[in-house]
Design goal:
The chain is mainly α and 264 residues long. 45% of the residues lie in helices and 8% in strands. It has 2 domains: 42 residues, no CATH class; 171 residues. The strands form 3 sheets. It has a two-stranded antiparallel ribbon with strand order 1-2. A two-stranded antiparallel ribbon has the order 3-4. Strands 5-6 form a two-stranded antiparallel ribbon. 19% of the residues are buried.
Length: 264
């Protein structure tokens, strides 16, 4: 054990008494300083021989992880860089639009067929001119009678079956648009060509009675005036739908290429 002399401040090394465990508390062991010879009393404290118990230490505090993003008062204070993501585009919307347009053409043709078959008694503003099913019915029931349309005048026969061609192409366009929508694809070239063809046929339907059934040599202006007077507005509807089909086909030529945009 060690102590320091209060007189000369020398460090003194000494052995504790052998019976220190039995000594009372506060007992002072007397030793003599080897440097200055002064006798001093050193208080001997008992050594605690009780085995130490393990005290469990609380774990160190850690900052909990949160998923909250900081909110900044202005854009300049934001330290997080803006990431770029790809805008997802598909042709579903365009295909659905083309399907609707095709269904309208098909519906007009079906209603026109029902009017010509006397299932619907009302003329419905001349919608019977848009009947594209009767020619199919003739072709299926009697192919020879259908071929008579082309005898002597092939061009005249083709013009006669324009409603049939319009109805058929509208049906094909509907099926293609449906399949394309399921595959999330949109064929720009195909739909543009089909839109031009359908638009041309639909606009031609406005002049279909004038071209195919004008046996009296009626002029164009009297013919158009007669359409208004006889309230055959379905022919104008057909032409309007054709122009709308063309506009949509041109608008949908825009590329569906995925473009990158910044997340705000």
């Amino acid at each position: 054990m060690y102590t320091r002399c209060p007189s000369c401040r020398a460090e003194i090394s000494f052995e504790p008494p052998a019976n220190m465990e039995s000594l009372p508390d506060g007992y002072k062991h007397r030793i003599k300083c080897p440097s200055c010879g002064v006798t001093i009393g050193v208080k001997i404290n008992k050594i605690d021989t009780t085995p130490a118990t393990l005290v469990q230490q609380a774990p160190a505090y850690t900052q909990p992880q949160t998923n909250f993003e900081p909110v900044y008062a202005n854009e300049e204070a934001a330290a997080v860089p803006q990431s770029k993501v790809k805008a997802k585009h598909s042709g579903i919307g365009r295909n659905v639009t083309m399907m609707i347009m095709s269904l309208i053409f098909i519906a007009l043709s079906v209603v026109g067929y029902l009017v010509n078959a006397d299932t619907i008694k009302n003329d419905l503003f001349g919608i019977s001119w848009l009947d594209g099913i009767t020619c199919w019915d003739i072709l299926i029931q009697n192919a020879d009678a259908f071929s008579l349309l082309f005898e002597g005048d092939v061009l005249g026969g083709i013009l006669t079956i324009i409603p049939m061609i319009l109805f058929t192409l509208a049906g094909i366009n509907f099926i293609v648009a449906l399949v394309s929508a399921c595959g999330k694809k949109y064929g720009r070239a195909y739909n543009l060509i089909m839109s031009i063809v359908l638009a041309g046929l639909s606009v031609f339907m406005l002049f279909y009675p004038f071209v195919c059934f004008n046996t009296e040599g009626e002029g164009l202006l009297p013919y158009l005036r007669g359409i208004v007077e006889e309230k055959e507005f379905a022919l104008f509807v057909s032409a309007g739908l054709g122009l709308l089909q063309l506009i949509l086909g041109l608008c949908f030529c825009k590329s569906l290429k995925r473009k990158e945009k910044k997340v705000k």
